[in-house]
Amino acid sequence: MTKVLLIEDDGGTAEEIVAELSELGFEIEWAANGIDGLDKARTTHPDVLVVDRMLPGMDGLAVIEALRKDQVGTPVVVLSALGAVDERVRGLRSGGDDYLTKPFAVVELIARIEALLRRPTDSRETTLRVGPLELDLIERTARRDERDIELLPREFRLLEYMMRRSGQLLTRAMLLEEVWNYKFVPATTNLVDVHMGRLRHKIDGPGEPQMIHNVRGSGFILRAHQ
After folding, report:
1. Domain residue spans in the chain?
2. Residue 179 CA to its chain's centroid (Å)
3. Strand, helix or coil at 143?
4. What gap in Å lies between CA 62 and CA 153, rounded to an integer?
5. For every one of its 226 residues, what pLDDT tens digit does the chain have, with 9 covering 90 and above?
6. Among candidates 16, 21, 59, which has minimal Cα distance to 37?
7. What is the C-alpha to C-alpha distance for residues 102 and 87, in angstroms, rounded to an integer?
8. What is the spatial distance between Cα 102 and Cα 60, in angstroms, rounded to a whole number?
9. Crossing angle for the helix pair 153-164 and 172-179, nearest 10 degrees?
10. What is the DSSP letter of 125?
11. N-to-C CA span, the chain
12. What angle do helix axes 172-179 and 191-203 make, rounded to 10 degrees?
């Protein structure tokens, strides 16, 4: 039975979610504030967390950040009445895996929980490694051997996508869709090439074997040097 921990201070919302999930066979536990929620998350080991953004006692994002610092990789759906893009980005960067804006239909929440449970295990890794390159998904830091690499948010996302698919040819269309969320590819754009050029300059330092390769007319490949 899938265990869900709901951290939500609104009693009406919590009761509706608990009733719907219980009816579908989920084992669900509820905490009404951030402090109790963090304690339950650490002790009950749920399969999925559903965390409200604004909580008494301890903010929802602070709860998620604390768990990620503990190396807890449990997938998290963030609930919030704050629907601005910046708020969604904050929720995801704090360690959330999905973000659902209130009001919402419980059936959509259930669908998102089921989608998170279908994710392959490696998508919950906290550190990615390709050869001498290491990416910490919690601290949002990058290193090559003993050299720290400072990355802008978009560069971090681009490198993460490439490291998860090391050795694979990644076309510009793939990168535009997955990293920039473009639903269509503009007829002419050098967006990928500009960002890739900056990233290559940071990843492949002077005298270091090349890791990011440009396949002319096709795309790019990240691979560990031999």
Report:
1. 3-123, 125-222
2. 12
3. strand
4. 20
5. 789 999 999 999 999 999 999 998 999 999 999 999 999 999 988 999 999 999 999 999 999 999 988 878 889 999 988 767 777 777 777 888 888 888 888 888 988 888 888 775 544 557 889 999 999 987 889 999 999 999 998 999 999 989 988 888 999 888 888 888 776 666 667 899 999 999 999 999 999 999 999 998 889 999 986 5
6. 59
7. 13
8. 15
9. 120
10. -
11. 45
12. 90
**From the centroid of its chain, how far is CA 132?**
23
CA distances from 224 to 38, 128, 193, 201, 209 (A): 39, 13, 21, 16, 9
CATH 1.10.10.10 fits 125-222, yes or no: yes
Structure tokens that stand for 167 in this block = 């050795």
- Tell me which residue of 166, 197, 191 sits closest to 179, measured CA to CA: 191
CATH topology agreement for domains 3-123 and 125-222: no
Residue 47 contacts residue 74 (beta carbons within 8 Å): yes
SS3 193: helix
Q: Which of 81, 85, 37, 75 has the alpha carbon at shortest distance from 59? A: 37
How many helices (H) and strands (E) the chain has is answered by 8, 12
Helix axes 60-69, 34-44, angle to 10 degrees: 30
187: which 2 tokens? 């007829």
Q: Which amino acid is at 37?
A: G
Phi and psi torsions of 182, nearest 5°: -75, 130
pTM here is: 0.55
The CATH homologous superfamily of the domain defined by 3-123: Response regulator (3.40.50.2300)
**What are the residue ranges of helices labelled H in 49-118?**
60-69, 85-93, 106-118
